[in-house]
Amino acid sequence: MYYVGVDIGGMSLKAGLVDERGVISASKAVPTRAKAPSEEIVSDLAGLVASLLESEGLTVKDIGGIGIGSPGSVNDAAGTVRYSCNINFRMTPIVAMLKEALGADRVAISNDANCAALGETLFGAGRGAKNSVTVTLGTGIGTGIVADGRLVTGNGSAGAEGGHMCIAYGGELCGCGKRGCYEAYASVSALIRQTERAMEAHPESLMHEIAKEEGVNGKTAFIAMKRGDKVAKEVVDTYIGYVGAGMVNFANIFWPEVFIVGGAISREGDTLILPLREYIAANIHSAAYNPPIEVVAATLGGDAGIVGAAALVMERPPRAKLH
Amino acid sequence: MYYVGVDIGGMSLKAGLVDERGVISASKAVPTRAKAPSEEIVSDLAGLVASLLESEGLTVKDIGGIGIGSPGSVNDAAGTVRYSCNINFRMTPIVAMLKEALGADRVAISNDANCAALGETLFGAGRGAKNSVTVTLGTGIGTGIVADGRLVTGNGSAGAEGGHMCIAYGGELCGCGKRGCYEAYASVSALIRQTERAMEAHPESLMHEIAKEEGVNGKTAFIAMKRGDKVAKEVVDTYIGYVGAGMVNFANIFWPEVFIVGGAISREGDTLILPLREYIAANIHSAAYNPPIEVVAATLGGDAGIVGAAALVMERPPRAKLH
């Protein structure tokens, strides 16, 4: 059986034909008209799905359903996007609109970070795990919780916003207006801020030279550290402590089998994952008595969102089929 | 149908006969021989349950099952207590031992804070809620998460230890050896510490007079605040901010319908609950777009543990029967 997974992004709308093993056999994309009326954006979405199906010789009756990942505040059960910062959705009933436009029976939606978490857990780095927490380190921090092959999102799917849990009471100001949020310490934007502060305090640091080429970014401190810069190593160590602190919170509450770390920074691989694993093992509650928690880097990259969106409409948690 | 709920405490073992509405119709207790070999403690438990059933004219075949709440690290699925600080349990397979001693088929166990959360959610302050988070403010902080009438405890039931989530990175030292734990800021012990510090800095505060009678305790600042003491009001306001910060973290991750606040401090009633409600509404993520979250004080008191333990062995989530 095939499913369609749709990833709504600020730049492009992407749709993929996905099978129950999580393999994308065909995909298409169109630019997102982010500021257009929501009806037009959804009409673009419907056109994209129809065109993908047509080019594969399929109709909407041939597939198991259509799953959508959207940025912003999504009400999964109601099938609406309450609000999105970057795209013109305001209480937009996307599921109902898409059902009507395509004559489809089975359409589901969730937040894009949740879809990526579901995709990675079922078909990527977390394959086989009973439960997982995915932390995506980007401009902000996205978090997704999966238990028994299904997303855990709380009442009205308003939860799973771990980026805004407080890890430093009264601390750094976050983009959300609150202080001390995980995102204000462990996102790529936070790492860049921490890098810049260290550079200001240390004109002798190698980071200045590295930043000359492409400016300060999430890689600056990692590159300098690998070349032996001590200030950079301190920036990275401190940053990994922040990333770990939020994950330890998730552990003490949920105790997943596996943490999946996604986003650009996860491409650092073992440089990030090994010390993070150590930090988590040393800081989770009663580690001596409780099951160990694995920490891995995401493996699906940009595909996680499409594959996870498709998994929203798969009838049984794929894990039951796969293992 | 009747069920037996057992609450293992450091001072006494309590057992109650509970019906499916959560009403305790009979109960018994014996002292806990906390330092005795675990076999003897479990034998006391079995004797207590047998004696309760006998005095009600019942046998173990007449009841729906036996549920147990135990302090410490409990593996619900395995039916063992891995470790308890105060009672001599070390990888003790209580469920198997009790099944054998009583000839019972249906025995289940969970952490005592989890049982209290389940009891309050199904039959107490959270009655009717689809999902809830219970925060018990005591010497430490116990937390319990209920979704669809069942406890959420993570892999190996090692989670639901929200008292040890970090809310203040690098902050106050916690009894667990880590820094910045919720428990180190929002437990009664933490409130007492905060009260003592404020008293030291303010010899003029009314709190000194109040503490003369029974020493500094969790009520000192609340009493002084109600009599107009400004320093005490600051202590209470700050403390409520800490309590709220941990609850906001739970909200941003789980978004329950209701928070239930238990423990001695919850007896302050509206003095605690009203400002806590305000703090939470003002600090949860995207409050304008998401469903509101209710905050209530626990209502079952010491019975919550027995009733919740009994609910562990009720066949369907009682909510389905009740609403």
Automatic annotation (TrEMBL), chains A, B:
<comment type="similarity">
    <text>Belongs to the ROK (NagC/XylR) family.</text>
</comment>
<protein>
    <submittedName>
        <fullName>ROK family protein</fullName>
    </submittedName>
</protein>
<dbReference type="InterPro" id="IPR049874">
    <property type="entry name" value="ROK_cs"/>
</dbReference>
<dbReference type="Pfam" id="PF00480">
    <property type="entry name" value="ROK"/>
</dbReference>
<dbReference type="InterPro" id="IPR043129">
    <property type="entry name" value="ATPase_NBD"/>
</dbReference>
<dbReference type="InterPro" id="IPR000600">
    <property type="entry name" value="ROK"/>
</dbReference>
